[in-house]
Design a protein that fits this description.
Layout lengths: L1 H20 L4 H7 L2 E2 L6 E2 L2 H11 L11
Antiparallel strand pairs: 1-2
């Protein structure tokens, strides 16, 4: 009967482990996206991505300065 007890303990531990990982990623995403394009309002992670975004989506415009 020791295997039955081990099985129950393993199920309990797996249930606890799986509960910790559940949740929405919206909060983490909101924290990571800190820069917003003033033209199209797309959210980006940093100034480098904003410069690349301007090069591809707004080639006639100049990207804003780094002072945020």
């Amino acid at each position: 009967m020791t295997r039955g007890k081990q099985k129950i303990e393993a199920q309990r531990k797996n249930a606890e482990r799986n509960q910790k990982h559940k949740g929405s990623q919206l909060e983490a995403r909101a924290v990571a996206l800190k820069v917003t394009c003033p033209i199209c309002k797309v959210q980006l992670a940093n100034q480098n991505q904003l410069g690349d975004h301007y090069g591809s989506k707004h080639p006639k415009e100049k990207p804003p300065s780094d002072s945020s």
